[in-house]
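pinging the channel bc i need a second pair of eyes. not urgent but kinda urgent?? the chain im working w is below, pasted from the shared doc
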Amino acid sequence: MKTNNSILFSIHNIYKDLTSSERKVADYILKNPLDVTDITIEILSEYCKTSISTVSRFTKKLNLENFYQLKLLIAKEFINPSKINSSNIENLDFNNLQTYSDIATINANILFKSIEEFDEERFEKVISSLSQKKNIYLFAMGTSGTLAVEAWNKFTRLGVKCFFTLDFHSQLLQASILDENDVAIIFSHSGINKDILNLVDTIKKTGAHTIGITNFSKTPFETSVDICLSFFNSYNIQNELTGLVSRVPLLLVIEAIYKTLGTKFYNEKLKDSYKEIFNKRSI
């Protein structure tokens, strides 16, 4: 883009020239800008009840190359609003061999920042809750679903009764039937997604304990759950938390929970059981 105006301002400028389907995309982005940074083009098209090609045409009308570029601009605007420079995004060379090094450096910086913000007291409360409850239920939507899948794999290996379904409508049904013997872990990248906040309200009515895992502090999500592990103040962080980098701190905390719970749950019986399964599957 050839202007220093915000991307949301640009959307407003072209709104009158959009088709009815493209306006659905514009309306969703204007109402949920930060959520867009954490979803795929396929998911956005589903939310807007339109097609992937419509979203692509919408990004072209903003003079952007693709949906990924749009997500970068939105992330830059919300996470580091004082340093918006859309010309930098336009000039990115996505085929440059330097890309790998840049991504690795950003992820390393994010990890070191997450160590500084780590709340040991909250982490201990999370471990205590998970150790005392009978069942663990995982909830997430969009790309955060990959975090829940990773957590399910880790916790199940410990012999913990852990449940997760990728379909969000099924998650809503599951959320309504929990009880005080259950603990719910809810993942949210932004901490402001309305659907996730409604889901938390549903869970809390059942008496189940709620644990939130998110990137950003001081959000409605953080205050809605019983315990929340968060890492960054969205107005201070200097790098765009999109793509892989948005999930790195959350994957790290899943691994930390897994290692800590392992000292409580893992035993020789489980070890022998997994060894037997592995031997049956191996040639």
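so Residues 80-95, 235-240 have pLDDT under 50 and may be disordered. and The domain at 7-92 is CATH 1.10.10.10 (Arc Repressor Mutant, subunit A). — does that match what u expected or am i reading it wrong
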